[in-house]
Design brief:
heterodimer, A: mainly beta, six-stranded mixed beta sheet, B: four-stranded antiparallel beta sheet, globular
Chain lengths: ~110, ~110
């Protein structure tokens, strides 16, 4: 069975500081991995995804993530936080294109201090 | 144009009532979903439909009945609403692995 663990329900950074949101997964098959962002009272928006190929994936709004199979991790980073990055971030896993569901982590609330 | 749209956005109702949430996607995707987000923001899949056929039913109480009249629509009907049904319900669609989500329906049962 697949699962996702996001360490830290809340992460607080100063504006301009590095953002690091952690995600570890468990999967018996090569996983597809995703990061979604949810702004207050909004739906989920895809930030980036890893399916196959290059393990460093770049997404929207300056975010990127690196798939590390040996560590079963897919951490999300951004070099410099903006106030507008404050939101809930979800890591998710699926077992490929024929999968009919995403398994989500419990989410991490990113707070950005002025 | 909204890719995945759900109505209503907010729904407040009394225990025991029956209510429906509608979802439509204009992306031409074959697969549609309902997810439930609880008060702790945890997201869990409820149903998956592919080409109007039910693929996944994640042990959801049978008070919840999805219906897909065509590939572009997936509605969710809930009978005999309970306090514990209060949550945000998200509709989504996908072509392959990438899912697109609607804005959510916040259901409050009082």
């Amino acid at each position: 069975a697949q699962s996702v663990t996001q360490l830290g329900s809340h992460v607080s950074v100063s504006e301009g500081a590095l953002v690091l949101l952690r995600c570890n997964y468990s999967s018996s098959v090569p996983p597809y991995l995703f990061w979604y962002v949810q702004y207050p009272n909004q739906g989920l928006q895809l930030l980036l995804k890893y399916t196959t190929g290059a393990t460093l994936v770049k997404g929207i709004n300056g975010f990127e993530a690196e798939f590390k199979k040996s560590e079963t991790s897919f951490h999300l980073t951004k070099p410099s936080a903006h106030m507008s990055d404050a939101a809930e971030y979800f890591c998710a896993v699926s077992d490929g294109d024929s999968s009919y569901k995403l398994i989500f982590g419990s989410g991490t609330r990113l707070l950005v201090r002025p | 144009d909204t890719a995945v749209s759900q109505t209503p956005k907010y729904l407040v109702t009394q225990m025991g009532n029956d209510k429906s949430i509608k979802c439509e996607q204009n992306l031409g995707h074959d697969t549609m979903y309902w997810y439930k987000q609880d008060s702790k923001k945890f997201l869990k899949i409820m149903f998956s439909y592919n080409n109007k056929e039910l693929i996944i039913n994640e042990t959801v109480p049978n008070r919840f009945s999805p219906k897909s009249p065509d590939k572009a629509h997936l509605n969710l009907h809930i009978n005999s609403l309970e306090l514990g049904d209060s949550a945000v319900y998200f509709c989504a669609s996908s072509l392959k692995s990438e899912a697109f989500f609607g804005q959510g329906t916040r259901l409050t049962v009082v």
